[in-house]
Amino acid sequence: MSVNVIVGTQWGDEGKGKITDLLAKKVDLVVRYQGGNNAGHTVVINKKTFKLHLIPSGIFYPHIICVIGNGVVIDPEVFLQEVATLKDNGINVSPKNLKISKTAHVILSKHKERDCNNEEAKDSLKIGTTKRGIGPSYEDKINRSGLRAEQYAKELEPYLVDSVLYLDKAIKDNKNILLEGAQGTMLDIDHGTYPFVTSSNPTAGGSCTGSGIGPTKIDKVIGIAKAYCTRVGEGPFPTELNDSIGIYLREKGAEYGTTTGRNRRCGWFDIPVLKHAVRVNGLTELVITKLDVLDDLDEIQICTGYNYKGNILKDYPSDINVLIECIPVLKSFPGWNSDITEISSYSDLPKETQNYLNFIEQETGVPIRIVSVGADRTQTVWK
Known about the structure:
The chain is an alpha/beta fold. It has 2 domains: 3-103 and 160-224, Adenylosuccinate Synthetase, Chain A, domain 1 (3-Layer(aba) Sandwich), CATH 3.40.440; 226-382, Alpha-Beta Complex (Adenylosuccinate Synthetase, Chain A, domain 3), CATH 3.90.170.10. It has 11 helices and 20 strands. The strands form 5 sheets. It has a 10-stranded mixed beta sheet with strand order 9-7-5-2-10-1-11-15-19-20, sandwiched between helices. Strands 14, 16, 17 and 18 form a 4-stranded mixed beta sheet that branches. Strands 3-4 form a two-stranded antiparallel ribbon. Helix 3 crosses helix 5 (134-142). The two termini are 23 Å apart. The mean pLDDT is 93.
């Protein structure tokens, strides 16, 4: 029996959907533990693309039971639409393999209206919210005025379970469980670039509160990091590239929001960000995604620290006013100028690629276990 957590280590969009789908092959349950349909997890199977917003990424395996945990806020309309779309594409979805926590909170029309029409709407645009009622639903939850799924519509009733008891029984029955987070560490309400953050805790601690599984049951915390950085919306982004390379990364990496379609800002890989994620999540291993996007670059850079008014900072500052004035300290690496999308063995990766990955391991002290070299399930290198 094992309980493993998947977390994003940057600003979301790290490729958690593919990795969850990949690792799900060997588990019995996949559990979403926070966020709502502001998430967008993309899974490519046999060149066919599926985009999930609420349903866990393990849904494509017939042996897996997927659970939407108590920490998620659910838009019933979006949920039912997602179920219908999967069924239309031949995916088996029913209350037998998909469960919703009775204590998950529901997004209502008033939450979406509040997200779009109130006086804070202008500020929410700056923060980068998806305007889907996620924040207002969490606000009502914290204010103890929210509505739980067990008190809502009959359409959800067949899927409802006491998720804490259900998952506890699964653990006692020696089932393997994968806890799937949405967004990323730097969007965490407590540990991210506040106030430019989401309304929940995507970090590993949130996996416990959002699922009802106690921390002593967690075996591994797997951090997903893109081979470069992206973020959507406003907020500090020290390694952002406002030049031709930034445009190249956006176009080559198809960096457009799965949920909103908005352009993602692109920048170099950031070691202080990843070290922060290692600390607050207790990461035990790393997965590097979208490495193939860097294939055509002659030179690749990694941020190793920040220059703040002449002082070199090696760690991510919690003060956003300091962060805004930070200039990245960059280390250059030669590119590999070759197509790695068909490589399946780590030893077959170009020497320059391995050097790039080895540097990330050395700087963070966390081993890289998986490297994604393309969008499809098969385009994966195990280390």
